[in-house]
C-alpha cells in the first residue's frame, strides 16, 4: 500500500479503536482481513491480550521470540498459557550461525561493553526472529503502553510501520498498570512470578534486573545504559533500519 494511504488508514483505525474496549479492539482488528500476528514477550500486559484472544477464540496468530537467554520462569509461562487457553504460541529462535558470528565479534556477553554490541545482540536474537514471525502479516499487534516509559508516552492505538510495511496495533496503549493488574486478578490470567519480585518489565535474563522503588517500569531493562538508548529496535524505526542492514 502507498505510504500516504497507509498512514490515512492507520489514523482512521486509531480513531475507531479509541472508542472500544479491549475485546472490541481485538475483534475489530481480527476482522480486517489478512494475517494478524500478536507478538508476546509473556509480560503482564501481553498476557492480558493473549487471554482475550484465547477466551474469544479470535483468528490472531500468537508468536514469541525465544531468544535463548530468557528466564526459566518465562519459558514455563509459555506452556502454562498454552494449556490454560488451549492455544499455540509459535516460538521464533535466533539462527545458530548468527549467534556464533556475534560471539566471535563481541563475545557472548559483549552487550555490556557498548550500545552497538547490545543493539547487535538484539538484532540477532530479536529483530531477525521478529522478521520471520511477521512474514506475510498485514497487521502486527503489540502490548505497548504509554505508561511503560517516556519513549512510549505518545503510543497510538494504530500506526503504519513503514519499515515492515504493515499496520501496527497497540490495543493497550491507554491502559495503566493498575488496570492491567485488575484485569489479571479478575480473570485469573497466568503471569510471570518475576513480576511479584520487582520485575515489571521482563526481557532476557542477563539484561533485566528488578527495579528500585520510584523507578519507571522499564528501568530494569539494559540498566547500564542511558534512558534514551533503552530500546531493542522492535518498536523504534531507526533501530530497526540500522540493525536490518547489518
UniProtKB/TrEMBL annotation:
Pathway: Sulfur metabolism; hydrogen sulfide biosynthesis; sulfite from sulfate
Cellular localization per UniProt: Cytoplasm
Domain Phosphoadenosine phosphosulphate reductase: residue ranges: 36-210
Residues the entry annotates as binding [4Fe-4S] cluster: 121-122, 204, 207
InterPro entries: APS_reductase, PAPS/APS_Rdtase, PAPS_reduct_dom, Rossmann-like_a/b/a_fold
Cofactor descriptive note: Binds 1 [4Fe-4S] cluster per subunit.
Catalytically driven reaction(s): [thioredoxin]-disulfide + sulfite + AMP + 2 H(+) = adenosine 5'-phosphosulfate + [thioredoxin]-dithiol
EC main group: oxidoreductase
E.C. designation(s): 1.8.4.10
HAMAP family: CysH
Similarity annotation: Belongs to the PAPS reductase family. CysH subfamily.
The protein's name: Adenosine 5'-phosphosulfate reductase
Organism field: Rhizobium lentis
Encoding gene per record: cysH
